């Protein structure tokens, strides 16, 4: 196999991607389909799952709230039946959480952020890992963290706390699962172009009492390359991590962010 071939995920790779009916998750799902993978997506938004899978018959879809362990168990079981096993789990589902000073954050919003962003990934791991051990010769897991998982993020403490926790989860699992030839890596997206980032910027601008344009310019000044990343940038990194070229890469937190210097 030449070097170029090593950069391609093997055909027929069995992939489960959470939070994948829109945004980064959907972009990754499309990229893996184009790489001849067998892809199951999961999302809490039933209408979005239906819309995405109806326009791409290569995709299979499930509806579930990742914070509900029983629903997650059903998704993993359905994935095993539909795909005949599992080679790659991309734990992508997550929410932005509240924006505000720590004393103003509602306890229920904090709990919801932790339950979705951190516990949701655990819910999938506890069922997906045994399936991988049973059905895959060389499996891998990609954890979607964030640049907020390596930098402090004032007024976004619930989100940042979960994303830092996911880096610890990734590094610990890489050690635990290495003897089973299961690789575990985290992708840390930076400021990603799209509607979700527009909402985050608007909420932060309101919290700080500045205009949205001023807040957007402030975000760009923090990036060495002075530009946001795209969902395609994230998808390309996921494809690489799932390819034979990355067979000795595990326990790593890979920032795809243009080098965000601070938040």
TrEMBL record:
For this UniProt record, give its keywords in alphabetical order, as a comma-separated list.
Answer: Oxidoreductase
Q: Which InterPro entries does the entry mention?
A: NAD(P)-bd_dom_sf, Sc_DH/Rdtase_CS, SDR_fam
Which PROSITE patterns does the entry link to? ADH_SHORT
Top-level taxon of origin: Bacteria
Q: Which GO terms describe its molecular function?
A: oxidoreductase activity, acting on the CH-OH group of donors, NAD or NADP as acceptor
Q: Which NCBIfam families match?
A: PRK12826.1-2
Q: Which family does it belong to?
A: Belongs to the short-chain dehydrogenases/reductases (SDR) family.
Indicate what this protein is called per its UniProt record: 3-ketoacyl-ACP reductase
Organism, per UniProt? Caballeronia pedi
The taxonomy runs: Bacteria, Pseudomonadati, Pseudomonadota, Betaproteobacteria, Burkholderiales
């Amino acid at each position: 196999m030449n070097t170029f071939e090593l950069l391609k995920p093997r055909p027929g790779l069995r992939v489960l991607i959470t939070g994948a009916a829109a945004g980064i998750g959907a972009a990754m799902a499309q990229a893996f389909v184009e790489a001849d993978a067998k892809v199951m997506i999961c999302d809490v938004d039933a209408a979005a799952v239906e819309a995405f899978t109806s326009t791409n018959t290569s995709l299979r879809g499930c509806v579930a709230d990742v914070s509900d362990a029983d629903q997650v168990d059903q998704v993993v079981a359905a994935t095993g039946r539909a795909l005949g096993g599992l080679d790659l789990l991309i734990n992508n589902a997550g929410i932005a959480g509240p924006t505000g000073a720590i004393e103003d954050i509602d306890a229920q919003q904090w709990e919801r952020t932790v339950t979705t962003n951190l516990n949701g990934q655990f819910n999938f791991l506890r069922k997906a890992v045994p399936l991988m051990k049973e059905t895959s010769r060389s499996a891998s897991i990609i954890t979607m963290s964030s640049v907020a998982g390596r930098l402090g993020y004032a007024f976004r403490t619930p989100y940042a706390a979960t994303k830092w926790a996911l880096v610890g989860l990734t590094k610990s699992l890489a050690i635990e699962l290495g003897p089973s030839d299961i690789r575990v890596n985290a992708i840390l997206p930076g400021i990603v172009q799209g509607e979700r980032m527009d909402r985050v910027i608007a909420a932060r601008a309101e919290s700080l009492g500045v205009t949205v344009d001023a807040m957007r310019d402030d975000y760009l000044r923090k990036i060495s390359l002075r530009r946001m990343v795209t969902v395609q940038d994230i998808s390309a990194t996921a494809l690489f991590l799932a390819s034979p070229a990355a067979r000795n890469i595990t326990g790593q937190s890979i920032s795809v962010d243009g080098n965000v210097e601070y938040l």
